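Exercise: predict the fold of this chain.
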Amino acid sequence: MTGSDFEPPPHAKARWAGAIYLVVVAGMFSLGYAPSLVFAGNNDAEIVQSIASHERLLQLSIVAEAICYLAFLILPLALHRFLAPAGRFTAMIMVALATMSVPLGFAGLVHLLDIVRMLAGDAAQLSEVAVMTALNSY
């Protein structure tokens, strides 16, 4: 038996997949908690003011969401190694569908990055329409 023939036991694969899944679940910060504070308001002006006053939280939310998407890209690969013995074709379909969703998530993050870029400019020149257009595109 050579070193490259070593196959970890199923419980070790399951633990790795579970650890990665915890990172994905921790992404709920960027999908639930942060937006409830950052995008608070009843009208466009209040929402833009809320975004401007929670700029750091928005930035942290973007980083957390990017980490979540990266973990969501790795998770199906880890699950594939664990679930392939039960059904190789089904495991491949899971990997394909999950990996197709990740670029869509990153494309949505571009709109949030546009908002951060707008905030980095002059606050007095912050365009409510431009911010709301980027937010609605997200």
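Check your answer against the key: The mean pLDDT is 84.
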